[in-house]
Amino acid sequence: MDRPEKLSTIKKRRSLSFRIAKWWIPKFFYCTSYLIFGTARMRYFSKNNFDELVDNNKSIIVACFHQGILFLPFLLRHNRYGKRIAMVSTSPEGDYIAGAMKMFGQSAARGSSTRGGKKALQVMIDMLNEGHQQPQAHHGLITVDGPKGPAHEVKMGVVKLAKETGLPIVPMNWYAGSGITLRNWDQTMLPRPFSKLAIAYGEPIFVSKDACEKKMEETRQEVARSLEDCYRIVQENA
């Protein structure tokens, strides 16, 4: 079960400095995204399957490495993608991310911080399954090695998400020809304005509702191979 929220975390959320930061950080990220990604020269690879699913109003799960998390909100900003839902930490820092996503027209699946509450993965499963009843497609966005790594190590969460929702996993990775790599656990990429970006997609990967643990592990490895292939392609072409 989830741990209850710490008193120090509650105090931080109630502080004036945090409330000010919660207001301006999402707006700064939104504007900066257009400065950086909006000026980039983008080249896509193997995007046909992704476009076909989206254009036919089919819901999908977009899976990428945490390293490229800054690009996801901008990449999927258009309303043509339907409703977009991403798992976001319940931490105060997650409040900034959720606020920025809202500005891009996206939703955050956040687990409860109280004991006995639903975890973020289950919240996301519920939101995507509820989307089956809606005319508009509902897409899940997930960083497969998040929230704390190790980097590029695909966890089972994305496979469970696909199994419980029946949605295909579409691996995606990108790389910038010029930019900054942050010195954190995932080495987050931050391109320079007007840089060249390469974006690659993998084939859709399906998980059956009755998949056993062995099959789920095989699928996890398949997702990992596809993501690494995408990463190799974008590194070679950025």
Write up what this structure looks like:
- With 238 residues, this protein is an alpha/beta fold.
- The chain is 42% helix and 18% strand.
- It is built from 8 helices and 9 strands.
- The strands form 2 sheets. It has a 7-stranded mixed sheet with strand order 1-9-6-2-5-3-4. Strands 7-8 form a two-stranded antiparallel sheet.
- α2 (16-36) packs across α5 (92-103).
- Keywords: Membrane, Transmembrane, Transmembrane helix.
- Residues 85-151 form the DUF374 domain.
- InterPro entries: DUF374.
- This is DUF374 domain-containing protein.
Mean pLDDT level: 90
Q: What is Rg? A: 18 Å
DSSP, total strands: 9
Helix percent band = 40-55%
Order of helices and strands: HHEHEHEHEHEHEEEEH
Domains counted in the coordinates: how many?
1
**Number of helical elements:** 8
Largest sheet: 7 strands, mixed
Q: Which descriptor suits the 3D outline?
A: globular
What fraction of the residues are assigned to beta strands by DSSP? 15-25%
Q: Order of strands across the widest beta sheet?
A: 1-9-6-2-5-3-4
Unreliable sequence segments: none
| End-to-end separation | 43 Å
What class would the helix/strand composition place it in?
alpha/beta
